[in-house]
Amino acid sequence: FLRDKSISLVDLNFDSYPDLDKLLARSWDGRSEAHDIWLFEPDSSRFVYSEAYSDRLGHYAVQTDERTLRSGSVTGCGGYCYTSHVYRPTADSLLLIERTRLYHDLEKDTMMFKREKLIDGRMVVVEHSPH
C-alpha cells in the first residue's frame, strides 16, 4: 500500500451536507483503498468519525441517482478476482443491498461469478455461475 494524505468533502449519506473522507492508503494499482470517514452532524456543526463507513468503504463510488455507495476491491487471482458491495446509507450505518464476487472455486478449479441481493431483509443469491 502507498500512503496518501488526501482529504475530500463528499456527501456520503445523502443528507445534503458534505462529509469528510481522509484517504489513508491506496494499493499500487489504485484498486484497493482504506479511508477514515467523518459524517457531518448538522445539529452540532461537527464532523463525527464513522466506524461503519470507514470499515466498509474501500475503493468507492457515490451513485447519486440511486442514493447508494458502491465499494469494491480486488481479492486475488492476479488481479482478476474481485468483490463489490452496494450500500444504502441509513440513519447511522450502511445497509448492504447487493454483493457481487468473481472468485476461484478451488474444488471445481474454475472461476465463479456470484451475485446476491437484499430481498425481504436477507441476502439472496440471484445469480451464480461459472465464468
Question: Can you walk me through this structure?
Answer:
The radius of gyration is 16 Å and the shape is globular. Helix content is 5%, strand content 62%. A hairpin with an 8-residue loop joins strand 2 and strand 3. The chain has a six-stranded antiparallel beta sheet with strand order 6-7-8-9-10-11. The mean pLDDT is 89. With 131 residues, it is mainly β. It starts with a strand and ends with a strand.
Q: Let me know the largest β-sheet.
A: 6 strands, antiparallel
Shape: globular
Beta strands, count: 11
**What is the CA–CA distance across the termini?**
29 Å
Mean pLDDT level: 89
- Unreliable spans are none
Strand order of the largest sheet: 6-7-8-9-10-11
Strand coverage percent: over 45%
What class do helices, strands and sheet pairing give? Answer: mainly beta
Rg, Å, rounded: 16 Å
- Number of H- or I-type helical stretches: 1
The percent range for helix content is: under 10%
Oligomer: single chain
SSE succession? EEEEEHEEEEEE
Layout: helices, strands, pairs:
Layout: E1 2-3, E2 7-10, E3 19-26, E4 33-41, E5 46-49, H1 51-56, E6 59-63, E7 68-76, E8 81-89, E9 94-105, E10 110-119, E11 122-130
Antiparallel strand pairs: 1-3, 2-3, 3-4, 4-5, 6-7, 7-8, 8-9, 9-10, 10-11
In a nutshell, what does this entry contain?
The protein is mostly beta strands. The chain has one helix spanning 51-56, and strands at 2-3, 7-10, 19-26, 33-41, 46-49, 59-63, 68-76, 81-89, 94-105, 110-119, 122-130.
Features:
1 helix; 6-stranded antiparallel beta sheet; mainly beta; 5-stranded antiparallel beta sheet
